[in-house]
Amino acid sequence: MLRGVVKARDAYDIRFLRDRGTALNGHLRDHLADLILGNIDQEQIAERIASVTDGLCRVELKGFFPNDRYEALEKAHFQSLKDGLSQLFGEWL
Q1: Cα(43)–Cα(12) distance, rounded to whole angstroms?
Q2: How many domains does the chain fold into?
Q3: Over the stretch 58-91, which tens digit does the pLDDT of each residue have?
Q4: N or C: which terminus of the chain carries fewer CB neighbours within 10 A?
Q5: CB-CB contact of 2 with 92 (8 Å)
């Protein structure tokens, strides 16, 4: 969230970890909360999530994944990536 430019690969990594049951809790959650509360507000978080567009995902992810995995993401308009970000940052939205 604090990078100058949003990266689709970061959104994918968050989704990947969440799909495998990884949870942000304890010290890591507190650290993220401190970073967010001191640097970014709700509107900026929502804008950053909204900036994970189909176009951004196509440019950054198309050559990175096997065709079948990429095509499934594209067919769903990369919604699972946006959902993963919304879930991770939900308490600050």
Answers
A1: 22
A2: 1
A3: 999 999 999 999 999 999 999 999 999 999 999 8
A4: C
A5: no
